[in-house]
Structure formats: C-alpha cells, structure tokens
Design brief:
Nucleotidyltransferase, domain 5; globular; alpha/beta; 3 domains
C-alpha cells in the first residue's frame, strides 16, 4: 500500500466522480483495483508585492495538509501596473475597479488551470478553491472599518467549475476585528508544539504568531518587503532586492532610521494590522530629511524591517524558537540583521520543518477553504480583536 500511495502522490491519478460523491483516485495494480478517497483543495494567494499568484494543490487525505504541487503564476505587466495604480490613486473610477476585479478573477482561474495541468489532475478532483484575492485597501480603524480584496470569486467559480471560498476578512471586521492577520490560525494548526515558538511571516507586510501552551497571539509588525520593493523599483527598476545585495552595499543611516522608528504604528498595542496603503513609497519620501545615497536608504529600510520585527517579538517573549516563512526568508541581508537583533532566538526557515516558506500562505487558504466547508467557527479575539467567533470566508 505504501508504494501505491507514493505513486498516487506523484500525480498519476484517474478521476472517477459520480453525482455528489467525494473524489476518488483509482489505482490499478495487476488485476487489483484500489480506490482511495481523496481530499484535494487549492489555495490561491496574491500578496502585497503583486509579484505573482501563488497556487498550491493541498492534499488533506491523511488529515494534515500535504503540499502536492505549487506554481507561481505570472501577473501580466499591464495588470500589475493597473493594480499598483489602484494602491496610489486618491480616487478610482468604478468602471476601472470593476474591470480589474473581473480581469484578476479570470487570471486566478487561469492559475488554477495551470496548476491542474502541472499536477495532472482534473477539476472534478478538487473539493474547493480558497482564494484570498488581491488586497487593494485595508482600513480597519476608520469610522466604518473595511478591507477590500478583488479577484472576482464568481468568475473563478464559473470558469473552473470548482466551489470557491473567498472574502476572508470582512466577516471578522463586521465582528469588530481587524480582519488581519488571519494566518496565525493556520500557524497554530501546523506549528503547535510543547515548546514556545514565534512564527514570522515576512511578506510585503510582516506578521508574527506567538504560541505556547497558554498563549496565542498574532499581529502585523509593520513593513516586511514592501518598502524595499518600492525603493528598488524606483531606483533600479527591479521588482525586489535579490538576496539583499543592494542593501548590503549601502550603509545604515541612524538619523533616517530614528525618524522611521518614531512612527506610532510600531508602538501601538495589538491587535493591529496594516498594509501598503500606509507603508508605501510616499511614507519613505516623507521621512527623508535630507539627500541620501539610494543604497543607503535601502540598507536603512532593511534595518527598519529587521529591528521593528525584533522589537515586537521581544515585547512578546524573551527567547524561543523562531520559524521564518514568506519571501523575506530569501533576503540574506535582512535575515542576518534579524538574527543580530534576536541573538537569543533559535532562527530557522519553515523549510526545515517541511513547510515551504514561499507557499505557506497559499496552503493556509486551501486549509481555510476546507474549514469553511466544514462550517468551522474561529475565535480570533487575541489575534484580530473580534468580539465573537466568526466564519472565515464566503462560499461561492
């Protein structure tokens, strides 16, 4: 049986689906046919960096999530530019917003088709898609708190024929929460152990989850890669700072760092969340008190990310295991500065625990889709501050 399961996991599947029955994988061996009930979900994630759509096939057949296939589906340059323009616009035409929402929904569906082709599976094998969507505005602290993710889930459902779960944040906001981050719930699911640990996700925005036997806390610490990506895009027309090489060629400017660190967000108590509508290129430029070499600004912004993460981790715990995931794990200069500020912590990539750091958020939304279909309620009071347990996501 172990050999047959291994063969199944490599993607040599034949689907047999009848009515509303669960997907079945059929394996032929000599004259024997073995049928195994499968439990496949797809997670889609497009983060604040807008670099690609992460699409992951997740297998829950054995109970725990197992990544079976993952791709980074490219976002066309013209669409990237339209999405970036949405972030920076003071006002947006409704026609333009509607068109981009639909266009992005079609692109999410295309990423599903590409993933299915790569994994040699038919759409009928997938129970549901969990699509986070593309956040274009997050404002949980206004008179009327709100958060907007686009990438039309109706379009994804119509094009793929697969049940789609989306709109994960607004239910929590309606219950008095921040709407983000919600991935700490998934971190607890896969990283909970007898030892205290911090899970650090360095995406465009950085967030942490603290777990021990009595405590469960999670919040956004502030900028992760977003300021670094904005600055290098403006000065070198690159999407990101490969390995932090450009930052490492510069010198950290203490006066600029002090100005940046004075932002009240970093002292704000949790629960709290933020986004690139707050931490963006305008935020950087407003903090520039004089002329700096561009590489020195990049070095200082990298130090800002490292020190704000480290400071807020130390506010929660003095020392424990630190598990790092997200795209920032590849920025060697950033990780070196982080380790410098957290010398008492045992730092390691989630890769060492068998969870790909680049795919963990997409895996999380496959898991959230599964929980939503099971009608699971989540108590996020210590994470987002919501007043009552909530369902995460809407089923389309």
């Amino acid at each position: 049986m172990a050999m047959w399961l291994s063969w199944l996991e490599r993607g040599t599947h034949n689907a047999e689906v009848g009515g509303s029955s669960p997907p079945i994988a059929t394996i032929s061996f000599s004259s024997t046919i073995i049928k195994i009930m499968t439990d496949y979900f797809i997670g889609l994630m497009s983060g604040t960096s807008i670099d690609a759509i992460d699409a992951v096939l997740v297998d829950f057949t054995r109970g725990t999530p197992q990544q079976r296939c993952a791709i980074a589906h490219p976002i066309p340059t013209a669409l990237k530019q339209r999405l970036h323009a949405l972030y920076h616009a003071d006002s947006v035409e409704l026609a333009q917003l509607g068109q981009i929402d639909r266009q992005l929904g079609e692109l999410f569906a295309e990423s599903v088709f590409a993933l299915l082709q790569h994994s040699q599976l038919d759409a009928s094998m997938i129970k549901a898609i969990g699509s986070h969507g593309q956040t274009i505005f997050h404002d949980p602290n206004s008179e009327f708190p709100n958060s907007l993710q686009i990438g039309c889930p109706h379009t994804i459902r119509q094009m793929t024929g697969i049940t789609t779960v989306a709109d994960f944040r607004r239910g929590d906001i309606a219950a008095g929460g921040q709407g983000a981050p919600i991935t700490p719930i998934f971190h607890r699911e896969i990283f909970q152990s007898n030892q205290a640990s911090v899970i650090l996700n360095i995406g465009g925005i950085a967030n942490i989850t603290y777990l021990d036997k009595d405590t469960f806390i999670g919040f956004d610490t502030g900028p992760g890669n977003t300021l670094l990506d904005h600055w290098i895009k403006q000065h070198q027309d690159k999407d990101y700072d490969q390995d932090g090489r450009w930052a490492s060629s510069g010198s950290i400017q203490s006066d600029l760092l002090d100005i940046c660190l004075s932002d009240p967000y970093f002292k704000k108590s949790y629960p709290k969340s933020t986004g690139r509508e707050y931490f963006n290129l305008s935020w950087v430029e407003n903090n520039l008190s004089r002329e700096y070499a561009p590489e020195d600004v990049q070095a200082t912004l990298t130090e800002l990310t490292a020190i704000t993460i480290a400071n807020q981790i130390r506010d929660v715990t003095s020392a424990c295991d630190l598990i790092i995931c997200g795209g920032g794990v590849h920025n060697e200069f950033l990780i070196a500065r982080l380790k410098h500020h957290l010398s008492g912590f045992a730092c390691r990539s989630s890769e060492e625990l068998g969870v790909g750091p680049d795919w963990i958020e997409a895996i999380a939304f496959a898991w959230f889709a599964k929980q939503r279909l099971a009608n699971k309620l989540f108590d996020l009071k210590t994470i987002t501050g919501s007043e009552t347990p909530v369902h995460l996501g809407v089923v389309f």
